[in-house]
Amino acid sequence: MPGTRTTRKPQKRVNPPTPEVIEEALDPSPEDLDSRWLTAVRAADEKQAIDIQAFDLRGVTSIADVFVICHGRNPRQNQTIADEIEKQLKAQGDRPIAVEGFTNAEWILMDYGACIIHIFSEKAREYYGLDRLYRDALRLEVSPAK
Description:
Strand content: 15-25%
Strand order of the largest sheet: 3-4-5-2-1-6
Structural class: alpha+beta
Low-confidence stretches: none
CATH class of the domain at 55-140: Alpha Beta
Mean pLDDT: 86
Number of strands: 6
Distance between the termini: 75 Å
CATH architecture of the domain at 55-140: 2-Layer Sandwich
């Protein structure tokens, strides 16, 4: 309305975050990740997947928190690796949001939300180069199941 005067309420002051809070947000610990990536790594190892790599992608991309990347010797082995990963994660109560490429098995992508698993043929892995693409990400320690 013309001639009406509005008054502003004073804004609350917010203290800026401490350096420790900023560092923790920018450099989260690998222990903060859920355990699905480790289950996937161990399941892939049980089916003799080759060159299993896991990357902590927090702070690098918003696609996922973890990528697990491996390859097999042939399409049948890639399908077997994917089946074993799905079986072991299902036993923990996890089901994939989506699985792509299973039939062709050159690049099987298993989407578990925060954890995405890539199972390649050797040729496709070299061609797409996800290992190189995410080289700035923290590599998670991958050890065989005991």
